Give the backbone structure.
Amino acid sequence: MLIFSIAAVYIVQQLTQLEMLTPVLGGLVFLAIAILLPNLKGVTFWLTVSFMVAGTVLMLLQKVEASVWFVSAGINVTIVTLFLFAPLFGLPVRIPEYVEALKHFYEENFRSKAALFIGTQFFTQIMGVFINVGSIPVVYQMIFVKPQPGMSRMLANALNRGFAGAILWSPYFAAMTLVTTALELPWSSVLPYMLGLAFLSLVVSLAVDFRELRRAETVQTQQESTPRLGSLVFPIGLGIYLISAIITILILERLVELPMVILICMAAVLFPLIWCMAKGAMTVYRQGLKNHVTVTLPALQKEITLFLAAGFFSGSIGATKFGASVPAMLEHIPLSVTITFSLFTVLLIGGSSLIGLHPIVPVTILAGGIDPASVQISPLYFAVLLLGSWSLSNPISPASAVNNLLAGLFKKPVFEVVVPNYKFACCMAIVLIIYVMVVLAD
């Protein structure tokens, strides 16, 4: 109820612009952290405590007003609100008719190893846009309708990288909400560049595992006779739903003068409900809604607490005027500030993820504390850089939910899931730097 209260106050504040709600919202955030903190364990517990203690010390040293404390506490409230509503878009995807059609489509069309690999990554990316981490078990079940000998490691890579691709352009992910809100950019302005980067991630992934795929293809050719060709028609009903959901957000963003998060909440409440009613699938909707409230949200308390604490910490960093000192530090390196800052951002986010720190921490600090103009880049350049860095860091983080889920599904230690993606992450880092420099640099 406390999390629902935070979301409700945030929505009312955005709709009414009442400043008197800022201390109410900040107070609810502090209360939520205090109540949820005892339920945390391990690294998440100590990270959350560290953020709160460090943030408090920085605030006290800066002697800031009480209003700054409350504003800082509410920095990542948008993400909590998104956690509540965005998953509703995934409810129609689980309609049995669509699930069976997808399984049939998968089995009929992805017979070669290369097609299976790239198809798995692509479908995980598409499904991930709508059902987040839930895309992993859904696509996994489609893949292993029949055994896939010799492909386990590569299919784990494909699932992992597909989800990373969804991070790049999904309007329903925490990454997109955080970055576009902090930099005051509409999602539609970022979307074309992120789709280009998502396509490049498919190309890079295929290139990285190409040799291993060729070996698997050779073995398959020796074992099979003439391969059968399947029908390339994607399940029409599901395709219409997925496209319609994206178009709805694009239209609302153009026509309604409200923050992106509020538009997503509105669409998430109404669009899947109307779709399920039209399909006569209200049983699926009610079951999915109940599961979301009673299972999914309680399971997210770790992420919610960490994200709220990270927001407060980034606000305290902002109060120290840290962002203003970054350009001065980078000037000592004999490269242009744009290149230096781009490399610094990718290494900071990727490197911190490598040791288990969630990307939201460095991204929140950078997005909220750095003025893009001070490092000679545009807000759009900065957004693509941050989202690209977050995406490439996810497959190599031993603490990410996706890697731990894959470790369970494939019955392997988490580091066996992570290590094969180091090469992919390095290649994507190079591609990302080149991409933003060529496409977005002034």
User: Anything to note?
Assistant: The first helix runs from residue 2 to 16. The CA atoms of residues 403 and 409 lie 10 Å apart. The mean pLDDT is 88.
